[in-house]
Amino acid sequence: MSIVLKTIEKATAGKLKAEGVRPGVPDLCLPVPRGPYHGLYLELKRRRGGKLSLIQQTWLDRLTAQGYRTVVAKGASEAIRELERYLQGAEPS
Fold first, then answer.
1. ∠59-23-71 over CA atoms, to 5°?
2. pTM value?
3. Looking at the domain that runs over 24-88, which CATH code has it been given?
4. pLDDT by residue for the chain (93 residues), tens digit each?
5. Where do the structural domains in the chain lie, given as residue ranges?
6. Pairing relationship of beta strands 28-30 and 69-74 according to DSSP bridges
């Protein structure tokens, strides 16, 4: 089973790389300015056990320094809540 999963992961990684996906770039970008922010970048993680990699944290730090709001959302409901809060002009929870 482990060999099959690794093969699938490699195949998926190869397809994503061919499509121009770069490691560490947040999962969602909303290029809509609100308040002091140029846009929103959302990194999606599982509710349990989802952790940022060093490259993901580096991307978020750099985007924040450039005036973007960055959020790590654990689970779909948190991601939706943060997206709605951003669009309403509210600060992250």
1. 40
2. 0.78
3. 3.40.1350.10
4. 334 444 556 777 677 677 777 788 999 999 999 999 999 999 999 999 889 999 999 999 999 999 999 999 999 999 999 999 999 998 877
5. 24-88
6. unpaired
